[in-house]
Amino acid sequence: MGKDLTVREARAALASDDEERKRAVVVELEAIAAGEITDVLSWDALGRVQLVASADLPDRARRAIKKVKVTPNEHGNQIEVEMHDKISALRLLAKHRGLLEPNASETRPSMIGINITGPKTTTYEVKEDDDDEETVQEK
Question: pTM to 2 decimals?
Answer without folding.
Answer: 0.56
